[in-house]
What does this fold into?
Amino acid sequence: MNQMLQDTEVQDTEVQTSQAESAPDTPANPPAPEHPHFAKPQRVAFVQSSWHRDVVEECRISFLKEIEARHITNVDVFEVPGSFEIPLHAQLLAKTRRYTAIVAAGLVVDGGIYRHEFVADTVIKALMDVQLRTEVPVFSAVLTPQQFHETEVHYDFFRKHFVIKGIEVAEACANTLLSLERLRGQVAAGIPG
It folds into this structure.
């Protein structure tokens, strides 16, 4: 019996060795993708609601990491009581002309005086109005789950989901700012799109 175990261990070692020899050399961590640089420095405002802060902050953390990888290092973070308060802050920040983009993050759930669908729709529409009025792009990571129960399972799920949303909103923000920078350069130079 011991001989069979030893023979099996030897065979396993030989298989592992042959697999290692035939496997291509790949680094443990693939190289980070190269993102384009901006012609001018960009400054972004990140406005987040404090309702369910422990969930929403996951979006901010992943956003900050991803946006820095995309060569935007000037980010100012603002916190408001709830998602309903985000549009007014976004509008005032846009009017300062300090920011080339504004990102909003919040979690709107049932409870309180307003229905969550109403709050979410109102916030999204108001954010769209802000960007159209001020020509400062506004991005939303304000989420409204159909079902949210204050259980650890739901909190864990939405924390992970907000990490993904933070990365996605950083990508959208950086790509839009690059596109607008090119477009504005073309307009200034009189080059047709």
